[in-house]
Amino acid sequence: MRVATRPIDGQKPGTSGLRKKTKVFMAKGYLENFIQSVFDATGGATGRTYVVGGDGRYFNDRATQTILKMAAANGAKRVMVGRNALLSTPAASHLIRLNRTDGGIILSASHNPGGLDEDFGVKFNTPNGGPAPEAVTEAIFARTKEIRDYYIADDTDLDLSRIGTQQIGGMEVSVIDPVADYAALMETLFDFEAIRAMFAGGFRMRFDAMCAITGPYAREIIETRLGAAPGTVVNGTPLPDFGGMHPDPNPTWAHALMDEMFGPDAPDFGAASDGDGDRNMVVGRGIYVSPSDSLAVLAANAHLAPGYRDGLKGVARSMPTSTAADRVAEALGIGSYETPTGWKFFGNLLDAGRATLCGEESFGAGSDHVREKDGLWAVLLWLNILAERKESVAEIMGGHWQRFGRNYYSRHDYEALPVAVANAVMDGLRAKLGALSGQVVEGMTVGSADDFAYEDPVDGSVSRGQGLRVVFTDGSRLVLRLSGTGTEGATIRLYLERYVPGPDGLDAEVQEALAPVIRAAETLAGIRAATGREGPDVIT
Ligand code: VG1
Ligand code: CO
Asked: What is the rounded CA–CA span in Å between residue 129 and residue 146?
């Protein structure tokens, strides 16, 4: 059935897909226009095969039914969908690759809260399993501005709770177990026997799935296959509103886990993941591991896991992520890369075999096993490392800092600001950048300052305006950028870093260690002055 429509404003994908309020997505034609634009901008769906699934948030089920009917009406050959329309983002990426499909549609607003009054999102992944690169998202956006009609089958809804094959028109729909293939992939990468032995020896863990998609994955892998005690996984049932939780695995939102890990009788290891399962936070007993440090530790120890025994080809990090991983890459004699924020920028490096591990300061790490960041993968790699080294998280971190020095790191978020205020802060700092070099701020000399632009070393594409950065001659840095995943107002992210080579000064409190950089940021960017806020809303 052909349905006449009109372009809808603002369907521009951000850092990770199109994210809007759920009610916006539920409005007539909104989801349909975007999905039709995805098909149109990628050469049409005729004869093609896709993977579809999402993180289980409110509207996930109904959006999936709509997408299946649209794929059928657009002539697609086959769609694989997770049972009950559930798939974690990394599992979807794996299925796209495993089945050599023409791409996938992932329904999620990731770490944003879910529910009728919260957020929803749609992401298109290309046949390599990764988020569509900028050229593709721009073509999709361009199409949303011209669209005149969409196609949708006039069928009744399918029963997606039943594993097996069904038909809509001429299209086959395969409902599959969302966990099985992903769990099998993890078994090829990690030494499950060694981890099982560690659990059998009394190792205790807490995994907080935050009522989001990783619950079923973590239960199957950590409790059933690795033998962790029942109850290791908490908040393990995906709920449409995430049980009212904000499924963002950081010390602020995963505070219950933090309290337990810093409390009496804490488990040996703690972890949490986000709405769609691509992020992770890891915590040891009494010690929080910053995501930038986690990437560096994983890079330094990955060879302990069977999947990485032959070493890494290179390590890539997003620009705001601390330079801790670069020091490891240098020691290993492998390449290191600095990309803009967002996983789509790692795709080419992974495809070209230049990087094996990638990571972002925003609790994301992953490898070339899929083309998304992968929360549970990072947790399993940590478990494998702990099983091999037989040391505590605190011992591993301490040893790492002694060897490489410590990159104190923190991100300060100023959320829900008026867009004009946030833009004025950015414009103000941007205007100063050219004259900063050589200036002394808070006792530190500015070495360089720029608006980050990235030239992809594989395809030569250039992405500008990816964050304002000021680098001091002592290695300290501050970076300012606007979030591209929010649905209300603007969020300024201020990223702060200071390097201490050691052997002394490695055990300071993070915000104290960063105090001069925090003051320099206020001197240069004046965020508090311009916003009238006394401080950031979230500190990670
Ligand atoms: C944030 C993070 C970024 C991450 C993106 C998607 O983007 O900073 O590192 O890739 O979310 O992650 P932004 O533009 O708000 O800073 V997820 O877990 O939402 O798919
Ligand atoms: Co996510």
From this structure: 27
